[in-house]
Amino acid sequence: MKNQETLNSGKPRIIIILSVIASILAIPLIAMQFTNEVQWDLRDFAVMGTLLLSTGLGIELVLRNLKAGILRTVILVVILLALFLIWAELAVGIFGTPFAGS
To answer: Transmembrane stretches, by residue range (predicted)?
Structure first.
């Protein structure tokens, strides 16, 4: 039988993930108070929050279910690469899809 520490081991990591997401989303929120160069609306915050949350939960899923090894590393790199590619596409439209922010 698993002890109580093992059962609750993922709970603090979820709190850390949510805290990191809130911290990252606070950057453009604060920047909007000081400059007109950053112009996010509620939709921008929702999309980026969803992207960061899905990335964080995907990484958590991989860390919980795969033991250390090459497969785990490759999957984590693919998740992070997907985050950066989607982020770049939404920001400047590197692929020219209709989802581009420009």
So the answer is: 12-33, 45-63, 75-96
Global confidence as pTM: 0.82
Domain ranges in the chain are 4-92
Amino acid letter for position 41: D
DSSP codes joined into one string, 39-94: ---HHHHHHHHHHHHHHHHHHHHHHHHS-SSHHHHHHHHHHHHHHHHHHHHHHH-S
C-alpha–C-alpha distance, residues 22 and 15, integer Å: 11
Residue-wise pLDDT for 27-80, tens only, equals 999 999 999 999 999 999 999 999 999 999 999 999 999 998 999 999 999 999
